[in-house]
Amino acid sequence: MPVEYVAEVAGLGEVRAVPGARPELLGIQNLRGQILPVFDLALLLGIPRTAPPSRLLVVEASGCQAGFAVDEVSGIGDLPDPGEDTGSDLLAGATLSDGDLIGVIDVTRVIDSLDRTPP
Q1: pLDDT at residue 31 above 70?
Q2: How far apart are alpha carbons 50 and 62 in whole angstroms?
């Protein structure tokens, strides 16, 4: 995920379910007095989850702030520009970093898709 969109990384903490919410919305969390929707990033991307998420990645884009539940944050740093096409509308592309192929999330597209996708 491009670091310029990341406001904070924290422990997942308590997330309160929202009755009737879409499956990707795990619930809401009170983060220092601000109500934050928390989404399961793996579910949004169509990736099977092997373990419950433990970290919260707070992002800001398109004038919105949201939390993404993730398994882990393995590092923070610059990535080369994504050049490889991934076939996913939610990824800006993919890039090689230290021999690993990394999908780069298009945060703006993800946030925009949450606004227009019906429950």
Answers
A1: yes
A2: 31
Q: How far is CA 7 from CA 60, 96, 108, 111, 119, in A?
A: 7, 25, 14, 14, 26
Which CA distances in Å does 73 have to 69, 81, 96, 115? 11, 20, 18, 25
Confidence of residue 82 (pLDDT cuts 50, 70, 90): confident
- Domain at 74, CATH number: 2.40.50.180
What are the angstrom distances between the C-alpha of 77 and each of 29, 49, 92, 109, 112?
27, 25, 17, 22, 25
84-99 tens-digit pLDDT = 677 788 888 888 878 8
Task: Quote the pTM value.
Answer: 0.82
Contact call for residues 90 and 114 (beta carbons, < 8 A): no
Per the structure, the complete domain to which residue 83 belongs is given by 3-116
